[in-house]
Automatic annotation (TrEMBL):
InterPro entries reported for this sequence: Fatty_acid_hydroxylase, Sterol_desaturase/TMEM195
Keyword Membrane: yes
Spans through the membrane: 54-73, 80-97, 138-166
Keywords: Lipid metabolism, Membrane, Oxidoreductase, Transmembrane, Transmembrane helix
Protein known as: Sterol desaturase family protein
Pfam families per UniProt: FA_hydroxylase (PF04116)
Its membrane topology: Multi-pass membrane protein
Residues in coiled coil: none
Residue ranges of domain Fatty acid hydroxylase in the record: 83-216
Compartments, as annotated in UniProt: Endomembrane system
Record flagged with keyword Chloroplast: no
Length: 277
């Protein structure tokens, strides 16, 4: 099954071009805009993620199908309630996936790719990981609920398409009720910030309600500084894709104790062992 998001790629590229042109004809000194090498890296990472992701989807479908077969009941795709459950279940799974990938370093090594640009525009949405296998456990419970695998894959694509439009500085805050319930460009700009107040905030996919419920919400206030707390200063796609895995490996090899090795793998990004007393 080809994910629905693949069919949206031509539209993504066209909208990136339109937004880039908007900065040429309607410049804004308060916004970071585009830079050729940065955009090329984002597009390369997006293309690479699709090459890796297509065969991985075959494995994911088999895994979903296996769990779905064992589910005690199967929900009907013809019911509106099934689709409503799917929306909330998928979005909660995305929240759990996203939060874990910011708080567990070996998972962050995969997700850090998406945060590696110091700019924030529609091309940033395409800067995706080349190691998608870390996502599977977070969606298997949906199959266990009796949601058909094809519906899970479709909703994942819908969520990704929605999130593409969040990666822009050209849209200010939206109508207050929308900002209250849905993830918006303003909320997601916070998520991409390296400002101390913005770190590990606003993990939502389509909805922002999970962040409000679980205490990870932060409204946009001070100007966002995009990128990482320690930026990687490279446009090489291979280094962007795997630099944090290499850093994790160096720290694990250098650690003297097994508990420190475990900390470098499963602790949060930036974790370091306490000195022995």
């Amino acid at each position: 099954m080809i994910p629905a998001v693949v069919y949206a790629i031509p539209a993504f590229v066209l909208l990136v071009a339109v937004e880039a042109l908007s900065y040429r004809f309607l410049p804004d000194d308060e916004e970071y805009g585009y830079e050729v090498r940065d955009t090329a890296t984002s597009l390369s990472m997006g293309a690479g993620s699709q090459v890796v992701g297509l065969p991985w989807k075959v494995f994911a479908v088999l895994a979903y199908a296996g769990v779905y077969t064992l589910a005690p009941w199967h929900l009907s795709p013809s019911s509106a309630w099934t689709w409503l459950l799917l929306l909330f279940a998928d979005d909660l799974a995305y929240y759990a996936f996203h939060r874990a990938h910011h708080r567990v370093r070996v998972l962050w090594a995969s997700h850090v790719v998406h945060h590696s640009s110091v700019r924030y525009n529609l091309s940033t949405a395409l800067r995706q990981s080349w190691t998608p296998m870390t996502s599977l456990p977070f969606w298997l419970p949906l199959a266990a609920l009796g949601l058909p695998p094809w519906m899970i894959l479709l909703q994942q694509s819908i969520s990704l398409i929605y999130q593409f439009f969040l990666h822009t500085e050209r849209v200010d805050r939206l109508w207050r009720p929308v900002e209250l319930v849905f993830n918006t460009p303003s909320h997601h700009r916070v998520h991409h910030g390296s400002n101390q107040v913005y770190l590990d905030r606003n993990y939502g996919g389509i909805l922002i309600v999970w962040d409000r419920l679980f205490g990870s919400f932060e409204p946009e206030g001070e100007r966002v500084v995009y990128g990482l707390t320690k930026n990687i200063t490279t446009h090489n796609p291979l280094r962007v894709a795997f630099h944090e895995y290499a850093a994790v490996w160096r720290d694990v090899r250098a650690a003297a104790r097994w508990r420190d090795r475990a900390g470098h793998l499963f602790g949060p990004p930036g974790w370091s062992p306490k000195p022995e007393t």
